[in-house]
């Protein structure tokens, strides 16, 4: 098959997803690893934050695609991105991702980033993030996704923490919208 036929087939309507079948967090959990090289770092040997951010976006998208059973997911928001420590040339960076919360069309993926020094075996937690994706239909409009169903008490706790974060996000968004609507006098 030539590459152009693949592109055409990729844009064909996808089979309908059974929205009654919920999925657990474990169902779509994903881990990605990559060796950091010269091209990934600055002159001091530190890996660029943008390299880590791209790896996180790509890795978290795998979780969203798997959960929604649709390759049409887009990054809607990076809620947090906390850099805790640097990664260096020669480290293996591991991105651990899992679904934390599912709305009607949106999905929050929690991400933990680790860096391993292959010579010493030291593993460090270097970053954490929450990335929100939206599933799209063939018309690029938001599309419903299957629910997130906890498999055990640990998964239920993860979902509940994410639900609280979502409520806080919505409250902050509403407050900022109200503040934007206020007209301030020019002194």
Molecular structure report:
The chain has one domain (21-181): Hotdog Thioesterase (Thiol Ester Dehydrase, Chain A). The protein has helices at 3-10, 25-28, 49-68, 153-181; strands spanning 30-35, 73-83, 91-102, 106-117, 123-135. The radius of gyration is 19 Å and the shape is globular. The relative contact order is 0.19. The protein is of the alpha+beta class and 187 residues long. It has a 5-stranded antiparallel β-sheet. Helices cover 33% and strands 29% of the residues. It contains 4 helices and 5 strands, in the order ααβαββββα.
- Summed up, the domain count is 1
Runs in which pLDDT lies below 50 for 5 or more consecutive residues are none
Secondary structure class reads alpha+beta
Figure out the total of helices. 4
Number of strands: 5
Profile the largest sheet: 5 strands, antiparallel
| CATH level-two architecture | Roll
The main sheet orders its strands as: 1-3-4-5-2
Average pLDDT works out at 92
Question: What string, H for helix and E for strand, traces the elements in order?
Answer: HHEHEEEEH
End-to-end separation in angstroms reads 67 Å
CATH class: Alpha Beta
